[in-house]
Amino acid sequence: MDNKKNTISFVASGDSFITRRLPSYESEFQQLSNLIKKADVRFTNLEVTTHNFEGFPSALSGGTWAIASPDVLKDLKSYGFNMLAWANNHTLDYSYGGLDATYKYLNQNEIVHAGVGYNLAEASQPKYLETPYGRVAIIAATSTYHEYMAAGEQRPDISGRPGINPLDYSIIHVLSKEKLNQLNAIEKAANVNGFYEQGVKEGILNKVNGDFQPFSRLLFKEGEKEGKYSKPNSRDLKRILGRISEAKRQADYVLISIHSHEIGGNSLDEPADFLKIFSRACIDEGAHAVIGHGPHVIRGIEIYKKRPIFYSLGNFIFQNETVSHLPSDYYEKVGLDNNHNVADAFDKSTKNGTKGFSSYPLAWESILPFWTMEGDNLKEITLYPLDLGFGLSRQKRGWPTLRKNEELLKRLASLSSKFGTTIEIEDGIGKISF
């Protein structure tokens, strides 16, 4: 590390669901770009595939089949980003051809990127950014994905499978003894577990741990405190922690990116139990920050062992309704046919903007944190509110602008207080001091 400067600065955003080119380098863009470029390390999460339809649409998608021209990567660089993750629920929207092309265009644009690879070892490996003030590693994973999207292990006798770095998890539902007996009676009456029981009998399926009662694909357990809890998959957790162990010996700083839609209670802004367990384990292993995104809203900030965990930074760019094409699967889902176009499809799916994210104001405001470290010590975090244009037409909303927003910061402060974090608010800007 350069002795002339013992501090290093970071800025991170949430999801960049970018499907349009920057219209101009206007003053609002310049103001935001200048702020981002003040940091040494500048991270965003790319939530689209970027290619010229080299891949065909997958049978399953992350919701919208997310595609954009590779030229949008130039716009992300114009903002100042020099590091990104792209392990998320849209990575394989255009199958392996889309993955391969996106990988190619990211490399052509010389952007450090992590979380996706041609086998599991590559998808999970740390990627490194060289700065004058320290070498920085990024490791990226996602807990929100279809099973086929997970990268496969390489073997001596066969190649691995391209895909994302997965963080799987299990959910346990807890019921009282009385209710568990009622559930068991319902299962017997409806023969919910017939296939499972026959599979176990024939040796095709593994028997569920005796502490749990299966109900279709759900697991139930007896307990006094009813509800649900989740925990990370031990194999995935071990693999990711092993990569952190490697990276902390190869770099001065280690960042973890995790894309996670899953919720802990009944609200998008509450992280799942497994995400909290995972994030703290990453810090325990040596990570310097955990950067969360995925639910398209902000979540609280935890300072754990003097390291930040951003459970979700919301959206940075959100242009999910201006993709150029959609496959027939999407049209069929909303009751349309080949005589219709993308505008028809989005009008129908959102009921002309009255349902979905287009009508949800919390998806259109978010936070951009800027923090500094001196050696291993976190010095200060400044929180800049962003506005993405709620209420504008779909072709105009989705670009971020800096806005002083005390109500947003108060909401973030309330969410963060659950983790013991205090956010000071002054003149529309938030600060966490140490």
TrEMBL record:
Signal peptide: none annotated. SMART domains: PGA_cap (SM00854). Residues 9-320 form the Capsule synthesis protein CapA domain. It comes from the Bacteria. It comes from Terribacillus saccharophilus. This is Capsule biosynthesis protein. Belongs to the CapA family.
